[in-house]
Design a protein that fits this description.
The complex is a heterodimer of chains A (about 475) and B (about 1000). The two termini of chain A are about 45 Å apart. Chain A has about 475 residues and is of the alpha/beta class. Chain A is built from 14 helices and 17 strands. The radius of gyration of chain A is 24 Å and the shape is globular. In chain B, helix 13 packs antiparallel against helix 22. The chains are: A alpha/beta (about 475), B alpha+beta (about 1000). The interface between A and B is large, with 91 and 109 residues.
């Protein structure tokens, strides 16, 4: 007996046919706006591995051998070109160039240069498309992260996941379209609810946080002393009460409410099942790393992300904090890499093994990169880097992305774009495009204006797509 | 989607009257499809042809034709272009991203031209006049003027109003609307039994007089005013604005006229003889978010704050999307970018306003805002202090006499030792290399710890580190006393580039001779709290850097004599000292003399001021008689008691004026791209400020509520209307511009706006008028016919029915369960919240739930952290309070269901309601269920609901009888104790029933 049968049988006095119809009508599966997607999608879903704080491209992806020769010299004005700097380093008396302390090597058939800090990522290099020239005008965390996730530097705009679930809905009626997971590792720059908020879009499009622990979704578990059987009957009784209201008032919102309670019940069943990774086989943990056994780690969240993807969730957003290495970079950066390297690569391999990489777009990167010059006190063993938005590296994989390519090029200092810049809005337009959405058409009228994720910009970077 | 449907419906209604109206029918089409390229934004106009003004539409086109030929649609280019099937011809072009016009829209344009193409000035910019009441057929239905407008429209549509709602429904509706809480059964019974003709009016008057009314009204205003308890960006520190929130509650309860309410909040500080309350009111314009993120460019954010004030003012008072003109001329409305920055100029005058704010307390300007009891206590402490000072003064002659006597035998030496954290008396020679190091001080030396650094120095070069507790490189973290270019310099550095303070003496001291230098810091964060003394006398200082915003702790750094921040000293240093408190001027003088007490005492003449100070302090410290010592102790104690209490008084950030800061148009809205200079004025399209008003915020405030202002009254009544009917007369409550929706009842809107002004802006009177209308009192049942004709109930053929706001849902549950703690105002409280939500975003100690009363206060007092707002409120569509929000959103989601079923707030309320059911609801399950139903819904359950709930009760009872452990668990949700003497399984069963009642759609809806 399915839950739905149970519900209908248990609902006693209600007309069975009427109720069945009601459930169908109220189903939130798919959703989305008429006319969307606008064209055939390359990707059905997105997994966005956001690295909050601004990972240094110099130590990870953007190999700049000539920096060794510039080491310790002041960043030339001809390179800096009067660009604004944050208040943390703008008034430094000097801007000494500092090369990566970590070695690079080429990997895979594509020959991508990758740092020794990312050995697992290196192994999947041929699956990835590195964009070396992502750029943003923002130089501080709050506006840059808000820009990366909502397309605008200040709060008040819907997040990317909210736009996408508004536009093309979900592939399941048991789970929300947009799920957010934050690593529980602690330190670093704070995050803000607005990064996955819905702003002026209806609030049902906001990201739903999945958390480690008793309640993967807030308020998901029945209170202790309230059994699942109890809940089922309770919902039948509540539906009958609400049905009585509907008969009195004729308000279709009442029917919608009944179906939302049913969706809640389905989530109560489906979420713990999907969050429970203990039954995953050993070879899966071998992929993601043993960290994946610890709930709430980035690795565990990657594994849950794959399970969410399998179950039809549209937009899965992970956050890993503490990439903000103003100082002590040589000690702290390797720790962050260790947190995420194996699991990021493991996710790619796992999706590939399951045949899901083709229609899952995976994105890896932060809100900006870091400066070529040292911030603060440069010593023989220690250095730090300030925020740099003019160019930084992100990688994309799967979902219609050309595998094993590098796109865009920066100068010898890694400071300026030499060719093929990709603005954050361009990246967003490209993500929407891969989902079959024209970023110019996914709009919502608010306060007289048709808003869109890409604000007044955005250009699809077709060169990174197949 | 639904907006579009409603639009069609309203337009259909309109079109049934044959005449096409430009404002109602044509301008919205032109605005949406044509204005972006043929509208007010000059920069974006492709040709001279424009449709926002008549003259721009009548130009001769390049092909010699005209866009609009009145009376001749077939000759009008616009008709040809909008209806063409040829993509190269059709307007709007595909690249504009706009849909082509529908057949209906094309025919409207054609009809309008055929009817003579009459233009109209934009409706919301024409001051409202009071329209005559329209004729209606059914003269019995209207109860007040509102109803004539509503009925006239309904009759035109061939619709009929619904019957009056039942009294039980009505009293619940109006109680929820006016007070945010449901009626008690006793109130319901009294109303039902009241046969007098004004029974309903009596209820309304009672509710309007209730202090709960002010709380209800304040809530939506807090959202509009983007009130929060934290700064809202990044690390999102705490602020205190609740005194402003309490001012709002009080203003509504005192029925402050709306014009005063407006003027006080916009410009209370500029009123003659402004009261503390009027100054507190200006907190409205400081509620915007602020950032303390390290590394920001301060001006970038200061500009944001000013822009936020402009946008908020634009939205809540003017109903205009003024913010759209920040980067370019408005694309739809006649508001230029220059207009935006001219308004900006009004709000750009806060002296010393900082973009980079302190994240742990109020940012200037702010005021101490004592509550009445605090004010009384402060007065008493002031009096006590005055008395102590008087007593001290009174013993002065005696002291002089006693001191002279003591001097005769005074011997040895004395110095200021109170708070002395480090002392190195010995004279040392420094060679620009060596230092004398000692372990760091035992006390914390943080950014808010007062301190004093002092030493005798004999420098040989003008640059050197004298005394420090810091990292040993120049830009390092810590405290340091320096000689730089011969000037005495004090550094308190967190991060050299942007955090800390640096102050130096204006004048250099001489080289090669002994000079005593001392610096004191009052620990109050600002560089103005740093004083420099040279040879015991205060000297003029220059503030070099003043952004001491973040704590730090240099626990590993030693104290260095002869070194600071990597600099070394060339010359001699003696008597190096660090105090962990601020020294008084007298003390700073006393430590600057090398003369001993014995030597000073022996001097007959020639005592320096420093000598005199030292002698006096030494006497008081060592030899004064008990009465004198007591008077001194008393004075110190009175000062410190007053200071401690003063520090505990709440503050509120407020507005102030007078910076005389020039304002420039900012190209592309960018803080670093100034264009032409502008002066403060209101948008050109609107009436201007009277010449005899001050041309500042006060003038702006007067202008907003002046009779000639076409917007404020309309926008205000429209928002009130939304709070009763769920939708404004103008649905786009935040946009009365050309992209806004045409009012469903334009004459009614104007009538209400004029009524509001004519009543002396009487806020309670306008609420009463609305709830006394027959339109409001209608039954809210929806027939299939009405659902088809008017799904959004814009025509008001029925009463309002929609889900309650988040704050009302929670408050109602607390109220019916007896948990609600009613107390107006005070600091925000922290009710239940799932653990870990703050930490997972930002680390730290996270959210600490209150104990006791704080769990059960009304929701408007719930602590609002803007980067992580209360999840319960957000689930139910609360705005995030990051920016001004006036549009009410209502969605229906599974998270709401989970919340109402499982959140401890509602489970505890269910259990407490269950306790009351057993204790007060009679003896039978039937009676108890009926009793609870009455508490929540103001009526008895009908037989259907009664049977369902009874069955549920029996089921729960059977389940819990079989599982007493589960019963015990379910009744122990929440902090409140379980009522004594109740049978756990029975209570558990009723808890389940109560939860069902609290989850019913009816319960969380206004019927």
């Amino acid at each position: 007996m399915t839950r739905r049968d149970f519900f209908i049988r248990g609902s006693g006095g209600l007309g069975v046919a009427a109720l069945a119809q009601l459930l169908r009508a109220g189903s939130t599966a798919h959703g989305g706006q008429p006319g969307f997607p606008n064209f055939p999608a390359r990707a059905k879903r997105v997994i966005y591995l956001f690295q909050s704080g601004g990972p240094s491209q110099y130590e990870l992806f953007d190999y700049k051998p000539r920096l060794k020769q510039f080491a310790g010299t002041d960043l030339p004005d001809s390179v800096r070109q009067g660009q604004r700097l944050t208040g943390m380093s703008a008034s430094q008396s000097s801007f000494p160039v500092v090369p990566s302390k970590f070695a690079f090597a080429q990997h895979g058939e594509s020959g991508a240069w990758i740092s020794e800090l990312l050995p697992y990522t290196a192994k999947v290099a041929d699956q990835l498309a590195f964009i070396k020239t992502v750029n943003t005008e923002e130089i501080n965390h709050d506006p840059a992260a808000t820009m990366a996730q909502t397309g605008f530097r200040l709060g008040g705009r819907p997040s990317m996941g909210a736009w996408i679930s508004y536009g093309i809905g979900c592939e399941t009626d048991n789970l929300p379209a947009f799920v957010v997971m934050i690593s529980n590792s602690g330190g670093g720059q704070p995050l803000y609810d607005r990064l996955w908020g819905s702003a002026f879009l209806p609030s049902k499009y906001q990201g739903v946080k999945f958390r480690s622990g008793k309640d993967p979704v807030l308020y998901l578990s029945n209170p202790s002393g309230f059994t699942t059987d109890n809940r089922r009957t309770y919902l039948d009784e509540l539906a009958q009460l609400n049905q009585a209201s509907y008969q009195d008032y004729g308000d279709p919102e009442i029917n919608a409410r009944i179906s939302q309670y049913e969706m809640a019940f389905r989530m109560q069943a489906s979420v713990p099942e999907l969050a429970d990774i203990s039954k995953e086989p050993q070879h899966v943990f071998d992929l993601y790393g043993e960290d994946a056994r610890k709930p709430g780690t980035f690795a565990a969240n990657c594994l849950v992300a794959r399970r969410l993807a399998e179950r039809g969730v549209r937009f899965i957003q992970l956050y890993h904090r503490d990439w903000d290495h103003h100082g002590n970079l040589p000690v702290d950066l390797p720790k962050r890499c260790k947190d995420v390297d194996q699991a990021s690569a493991g996710l790619i391999l796992d999706l590939k093994e399951r045949g899901m990489l083709d229609d899952t777009l995976v994105i890896w990167g932060g809100e900006f990169g870091r400066t070529v010059y040292c911030q603060g006190h440069l010593t023989a063993t220690d250095y730090g880097r300030d925020h740099h938005g003019r160019c930084f590296t992100m990688w994309l994989a799967g979902g219609g992305v050309k595998p094993g390519i590098t796109f865009g090029e920066t100068d010898d200092y890694g400071y300026n774009i030499v060719r093929d810049g990709v603005h954050v809005h361009d990246l967003q337009a490209t993500i929407l495009y891969s989902l079959g959405i024209d970023h110019l058409r996914l709009t919502y009228k608010f306060q007289g204006r048709e808003f869109r994720l890409t604000d007044v910009g955005g250009r699809v970077v077709k060169d990174v797509l197949t | 989607m639904s907006r579009k449907l409603a639009c069609i419906l309203l337009a259909c209604g309109a079109a049934s009257a044959a005449e096409v109206s430009f404002n109602r029918d044509i301008r919205p089409i032109l605005s949406d499809r044509c204005f972006p390229c043929h509208g007010p934004d000059a920069a974006n106009r492709k040709t001279k042809l424009r449709f926002d003004i008549e003259s721009g539409a009548s130009i001769t086109l390049a092909n010699g034709k005209h866009a609009i030929v009145a009376g001749h649609p077939e000759q009008s280019e616009i008709v040809r272009r909008i209806s063409s099937d040829d993509k190269a011809v059709r307007m709007p072009p595909a690249y504009a991203g706009k849909d082509k016009l529908t057949a209906r829209e094309i025919s409207l344009v054609r009809d309008w031209i055929a009817q003579g193409a009459k233009w109209e000035a934009f409706w919301s910019f024409i001051p409202p006049t009071r329209p005559a009441l329209p004729e209606v057929t059914d003269r019995n239905w209207p109860r007040n003027p509102i109803d004539y407008f509503v009925l006239s429209r309904l009759e035109r549509e061939g619709l009929h109003p619904s019957p009056e709602a039942g009294r039980r429904t009505l009293i619940r509706r109006v109680s929820l609307d006016l007070t945010g809480l449901p009626p008690t059964p006793a109130e319901v019974d009294a109303f039902v039994a009241d046969a007098s003709p004004n029974a309903y009016e009596k209820v309304v008057d009672r509710l309007l007089a209730s202090p709960r009314y002010g709380e209800k009204m304040a809530y939506r205003w807090m959202e509009a005013a983007r009130y929060g308890d934290t700064n809202g960006y990044q690390t999102d520190g705490e602020r205190n604005m609740w005194r402003w929130r309490d001012w709002v509650i009080d203003a509504f309860n005192r029925n402050m006229p709306w014009n005063e309410f407006t003027v006080d909040q916009i410009a209370g500080d500029l009123l003659p003889h402004a009261t503390l309350e009027q100054i507190i009111a200006t907190g409205f314009n400081r509620n915007h978010r602020t950032t303390g993120e390290g590394g920001i460019i301060p001006e970038e954010y200061r500009v944001e704050y000013v822009a936020d004030r402009v946008q908020t003012t634009g939205t809540v008072f003017m109903g205009l999307t003024i913010g759209c003109a920040r980067c370019h001329d408005h694309k739809y409305d006649p508001i230029s970018q220059k207009d935006f920055y001219s308004l900006f100029a009004f709000f750009n005058q806060i002296p010393n306003e900082r973009g980079f704010v302190w994240n742990y307390g109020p940012e200037e300007p702010f005021v101490k805002a004592p509550l009445p009891a605090q004010k009384a206590r402060l007065d008493a402490l002031d009096q006590k202090l005055a008395q102590a000072r008087e007593n001290w003064e009174a013993v002065q002659p005696k002291i002089d006499k006693l001191q002279r006597k003591w001097e005769k035998k005074a011997a040895g030496d004395w110095t200021v030792t109170n708070g002395l954290a480090f002392r190195h008396d010995a004279e040392e020679a420094f060679d620009n290399k060596r230092t004398v190091e000692a372990p760091g001080p035992p006390a914390d030396f943080n950014y808010l710890d007062p301190c004093a650094y002092a030493a005798w120095i004999k420098p040989e070069t003008p640059n050197g580190g004298i005394l420090s507790h810091s990292e040993d490189f120049f830009e390092g973290q810590g405290h340091g006393l320096y000689l730089i270019d011969g000037k005495v310099r004090f550094h308190l550095i967190h991060r050299w580039t942007d955090l800390g303070l640096r102050v130096e003496s204006v004048d250099a001291i001489p080289l090669h001779e002994w000079t005593h230098v001392a610096v004191t810091y009052d620990g109050r964060r600002n560089a103005s709290g740093v004083k420099i003394y040279v040879n015991g006398a205060p000297v003029r200082t220059k503030i070099l850097f003043d952004q001491n915003n973040e704590p730090f702790h240099q626990k590993d750094a030693p104290i260095r004599v002869g070194g600071a921040g990597g600099m070394r000293f060339q010359g001699r240093i003696a008597g190096a000292r660090i105090y962990n408190r601020e020294l008084s001027a007298e003390e700073a003088a006393a430590i600057s003399t090398r003369d001993t007490i014995a030597q000073i005492a022996a001097m007959k003449t020639g005592r320096s001021a420093a000598d005199a100070a030292k002698l006096r302090l030494a006497f008081l410290d060592t030899a004064a008689p008990p009465a004198v010592k007591q008077a001194r102790v008393n004075l110190d104690a009175a000062q410190s008691e007053r200071r401690t209490f003063y520090d505990s008084i709440p503050t509120v950030m407020v507005m102030s004026d007078g910076a005389n800061r020039p304002t420039f148009l900012l190209k592309r809205g960018a803080y670093d791209s100034p264009g032409g200079k502008v002066t403060a004025r209101v948008p050109e399209i609107l009436p201007q400020l009277h010449a005899d008003w001050p041309q500042n915020r006060l003038g702006l405030a007067k202008w907003l509520v002046d009779r000639s202002n076409p917007l404020t009254a309309r926008v205000t009544v429209n928002r009130f209307w939304q709070s009763y009917f769920g939708t404004g007369i103008v649905k786009t409550v935040d946009d009365f511009g050309s992209q806004g929706e045409w009012p469903s009842h334009p004459e009614l809107l104007d009538w209400l706006a004029v009524q509001l002004m004519d009543s002396g802006w009487n806020v309670k009177a306008i609420q009463k008028l609305i709830v006394m209308s027959a339109a409001y009192q209608q039954d809210s049942r929806i027939t299939p016919e009405l659902l088809r004709r008017d799904p959004e109930n814009r025509l008001l053929a029925r009463g309002p029915r929609y889900r309650l706001g988040p704050e009302v849902i929670r408050d109602q549950a607390l109220f019916v369960s007896g948990l609600l703690v009613e107390r107006i105002g005070g600091p925000s409280v922290k009710p239940y919240q799932p653990p870990g939500l703050w930490q997972e975003l930002a680390g730290g100690k996270g959210y600490v739930e209150d104990k006791g009363d704080g769990l059960y206060r009304r929701s408007l007092y719930t602590y609002w952290k803007r980067t992580a707002p209360p999840p319960y409120m957000m689930n139910f569509d609360s705005p995030s309070r990051e920016t001004c929000t006036v549009y009410e959103q209502r969605t229906n989601s599974p998270l709401q269901a989970l919340d109402l079923m499982n959140d401890v707030t509602f489970m505890e309320a269910s259990r407490k309601l269950a306790e009351r059911m057993i204790e007060q609801g009679g003896d039978s399950p039937d009676a108890r269920i009926a009793w609870a139903f009455r508490q929540v819904l103001a009526r008895e359950p009908d037989n259907v609901r009664r049977r369902i709930l009874l069955d549920a009760y029996r089921r729960f009872a059977a389940n819990y009888s079989a599982n007493s452990e589960a019963a015990s668990e379910i009744i122990h949700q929440g902090d409140s104790p379980v009522a004594a003497g109740l049978q756990p399984t029975e209570l558990a069963a009723y808890t389940g029933v109560a939860s069902l009642i609290l989850n019913m759609d009816e319960t969380i809806s206004k019927e």
